[in-house]
Amino acid sequence: MDILAFGVQNDEQPMIERAFAGRHTVRCVDVFLNRDTAPIAADHEIISVSVNAQLDAAVLRTLAAGGTRMIAQRATGFNNIDLEVAAELGMTVARVSHYSPYSVAEFAWTLAMAVNRRVVRAATRTRDFDFRLDGLMGRDLHGRTAGVIGTGKIGECFARIAHGFGMKLLGWDIAENPACTELGMEYRENLPELLAEADLVSLHVPLLPATEHLLDRHGLSVMKDDAILVNTSRGGLVDTGALIEQLKAGRFTGVGLDVYEAEAGLFYLDKSLDVVTDDTLARLMTFSNVLVTSHQAYYTRDATAQIIETTVGNIDDYLTGRTSENVLVPAAGRAAG
Q1: What is the pLDDT of residues 313-324, one digit of tens each?
Q2: Exposure string (b/e) for 110-132, b if CB count within 10 Å is 16 or more?
Q3: Which of 2, 100, 126, 227 is most buried when burial is the number of CB atoms within 10 A of its CB?
Q4: Which residues carry out catalysis?
């Protein structure tokens, strides 16, 4: 079977090629799937895509017209896929339901510590042989309160690290995680209560209609003036415009963002020589207490290997008629031939 993989990073291409070797032929391309690139998939029954693929109705129809019957997404989130249209077109859609939660949780803490201790500013200074400490003062996290929004596998890992720092734990989720309560986590039924109490807030929930702009103007306004906010989940969980308003008012010790609600078409691409047309992102970058990274929290060798292995398994399942928890839209029958 010939498989086309979109949005493949240089680091992961040899891992993908090794995983498929002797089983299927895979062609890796670095372009992301969108309305302009969808025709490339013509005559490929199976394609694999990255998290920043655009799989709206128009793209899905183009894929279906070209013979694509199965989409294997190399990510957990699927807010970028119109599942209803995929089902109408008889396309099978699968994702990676889970991979190393440590990769994301550890990176969330990397962002938290970086903004708290002004690491980027310090590193920039010392490269210029400026060794002053002015403006670099952070604070101990020991004894302070961590608010974990979403206490699934990743949220639990984040909480365990917070517990290691000696922090008080607050949680918010639709269901309590017994492993977190064993750590001493206290759940808050109302999100504003958690936001008002926490010194550090980290987001670990999926992006769904019910969670879009979970941190809106009101949610951000009830947070402590010197709080730290970290988002390694999905950009749409935070109202970026409202966040900028709060930052302009001089609030928050630091904000670490690995995701951005309008990241499609920007993240994973080199835009260094282009004119910046996203005024919101450009304004966000001007704040010295904000650190933005390019959706890389998952990007460890361990997690990437698990993602690729699961993707290969999803494709094998499709070809043999099996199903699993990874299937978002079940098979509607193989294409003839």
Answers
A1: 999 999 999 999
A2: bbbbbbbbbbebbeebeeeeeee
A3: 227
A4: 234, 263
Question: Is residue 22 included in any domain, yes or no?
Answer: yes
CA distance 288 to 15: 37
Q: Where are the alpha helices (DSSP H) in 191-300?
A: 191-197, 217-221, 240-248, 279-284
Partners of 62 in the β-ladder: none
What is the pLDDT, as a whole number, of residue 335?
43
Report yes or no on 114 lying in a domain.
yes
Distances (CA, A) of 240 to 207, 234, 259: 15, 12, 11
Range of the domain at 271: 101-292
Q: Mean per-residue pLDDT for 39-44?
A: 97
Q: In this structure, are 15 and 121 located in the same domain?
A: no
Asked whether residue 337 is domain-assigned, the answer is: no
DSSP H helical segments within 187-250, as ranges? 191-197, 217-221, 240-248
What's CA 151's distance to the chain center, in Å?
16
Whether residues 240 and 325 fall in one domain:
no
pTM of the model: 0.90
pLDDT of 306 higher than 60: yes
Question: Do both 238 and 271 map to the same domain?
Answer: yes
Whether 336 is covered by a domain: the verdict is: no
- Quote the mean pLDDT of the chain: 95
Alpha helices (H) in 89-127, listed in sequence order: 101-116, 119-127
